[in-house]
Amino acid sequence: MSKHGSLVGTLSERNVYKKRVSKSRSPSAIGSQPTAQQPLSKTDFRAHLIARLDQAEVPAHKRMVYVAGLTGRAVQTVSRWFDIGRPGLPDLESYARLCEGLRCNADWMLGLSPTAGLRSETQVAGANAGQGWIGELLVEIGSEFHRCEAMRMSGDEMAPRIRDGDHMFVSRDIGAVSGNGIFVIEWKGRLVVRHVENRIGQGVVLSCENPAYAECVVKDALAAQRMGLRVVGKVQGIVRAVHFWAH
Fold first, then answer.
1. Looking at the predicted structure, is the pLDDT value of residue 10 above 60?
2. Could you tell me which CATH number the domain at 11-118 has?
3. How confident is the model at residue 207 (pLDDT cuts 50, 70, 90)?
4. Where along the chain do the CATH 2.10.109.10 domains lie?
5. For the chain, does the N or the C end have fewer beta carbons within 10 angstroms?
6. Higher-confidence residue: 216 or 70?
7. Span 175-198, average pLDDT
8. What are the backbone angles phi and psi of residue 66, rounded to the nearest 5°?
9. 86 Cβ neighbours under 8 A, 6+ residues apart
């Protein structure tokens, strides 16, 4: 899956963005106050960007690195968008990736929509009118795990909690062990799912739900490096279809 995710819904708005930005740079726009019908100034874009990052709980000291990762741009380039005195505007490709990565309505970033969400409730209802309960389910899953990457469980190591074939939602924002939990780990060239537990005096313990598999103790970072361990992300939830057959 692409690091930046799908750009559908934001790339189609580039022409609108280009027109609005051009208007915001014209002499007639200088000194005007942005409304729902006017483009945002560079200062307002900066304010909206920071507000969205705060909603995503991105620490202030990590904002630029985070946005650089979303857009694929250098930190030096991104830093201009945060400049207090003379904030800049992103290029069209960066803008599309930024809106998608922050799950942000591109119109809202330009001052054309009062809500920051990707789509209004009315739009969601209209888009899913012909899909029935499946559409509602997809919307609910998307809202719960929109910052996660979908992965499929392979193997019975975590059964019965996570079974072979279950769809997992993995947060790749967590690239290191952060507290106890269930993590996806790259180990000897393959991806595995393990319970991770910090035990005082022992180290980090990797274990399976299935008792047929033995636990593994990693004493320190050096030991993890020798074993070729790398944290891919933390499992935030699963989706499984369960059938109740009549007997």
1. no
2. 1.10.260
3. very high
4. 149-239
5. C
6. 216
7. 85
8. -65, -50
9. 42
CA gap 100, 94 in Å, rounded:
10
Reported as a pLDDT band with limits 50, 70 and 90, residue 39 is very low
What is the C-alpha to C-alpha distance for residues 172 and 94, in angstroms, rounded to an integer? 20
**CA 56, CA 202: separation in Å to the nearest integer?**
34
Residues 6+ apart with CB under 8 A from 135: 127, 128, 129
pLDDT at 246: 62
Whose CA is closest to 64, among 87, 82, 41?
82
Q: Which residue shows structure tokens 């007997």?
A: 247
Fold annotation for 149-239: Umud Fragment, subunit A (2.10.109)
The torsion of the CA quartet 176, 82, 149, 197, rounded to 10 degrees, works out to 20
- Please list, residue by residue across 117-140, b when 16 or more beta carbons sit within 10 angstroms of its beta carbon and e when fewer do: ebeeeeebeeebeeeeeeeeeebe
Sign of CA dihedral 35, 60, 172, 89: positive
Dihedral sign (CA 155, 156, 158, 160): positive
Identify the CA nearest to 68 among candidates 59, 84, 58, 79: 79
Are 103 and 118 in contact, with CB atoms under 8 Å apart? Answer: yes
CA 19, CA 5: separation in Å to the nearest integer?
A: 25
How close are the terminal C-alpha atoms of the chain, in Å? 41
